[in-house]
């Protein structure tokens, strides 16, 4: 088994923050010698954001971090694949925050829509969702049962709700 760090460009990283997927198909083909089952740390401009394993031309997610973590390895990496020796891999994994326990969340998105009837309002709602998407529509996220602790998120990152910001 080999260990890899895959540093994504900003556009690829942003796309990965927007949607929940089981694997990432990467633009840069796996390097010579990479094989299915090899461990991969995925990094964006802010640091390591996920761990996965090589599965053909894709990397299957095993764990995603709530926030990217700066590591020595990710800070020094250029865009693309970098092979890590086992000691560097262990150091990288040790520096990541411990996984959180899964819990229930209330995620909402609401917007005023002017329409003739309910059906038209719903169609317009889904049209807005599709056209604006996660890059422009902030959602409200709160621990289930503790809605007053909620915050606004945009692309998986806390976002100011003030319309003038």
Topology, pairings included?
Elements: E1 3-7, H1 10-18, E2 23-25, E3 39-44, E4 47-55, E5 58-69, H2 72-76, E6 80-84, H3 86-95, E7 105-108, H4 118-132, E8 139-143, E9 151-154, E10 157-158
Parallel strand pairs: 1-3
Antiparallel strand pairs: 1-6, 2-5, 3-4, 4-5, 7-8, 8-9, 9-10
Q: Short summary of the structure?
A:
This protein is of the alpha+beta class and 165 residues long. It is 24% helix and 33% strand.
Structural class: alpha+beta
**Helix-strand topology string:** EHEEEEHEHEHEEE
Which residues sit in consecutive blocks of at least 5 with pLDDT less than 50? none
Mean pLDDT: 88
Can you summarize the main beta sheet? Answer: 6 strands, mixed
- Total beta-strand segments: 10
What percent of residues adopt helix (DSSP H or I)?
10-25%
Please count the helical segments: 4
C-alpha Rg (nearest Å) = 19 Å
Across the major sheet, the strand order is 2-5-4-3-1-6
How does the overall form come out from the CA principal axes? elongated
β-strand percent reads: 25-35%
Distance between the termini: 48 Å
Q: Explain this structure to me?
A:
- There is one protein chain.
- The protein is an alpha+beta fold and 165 residues long.
- The protein has 4 helices and 10 strands; from the N terminus they run βαββββαβαβαβββ.
- A 6-stranded mixed beta sheet has the order 2-5-4-3-1-6. The chain has a 4-stranded antiparallel beta sheet with strand order 7-8-9-10, with no helix packed on it.
- The longest helix has 15 residues.
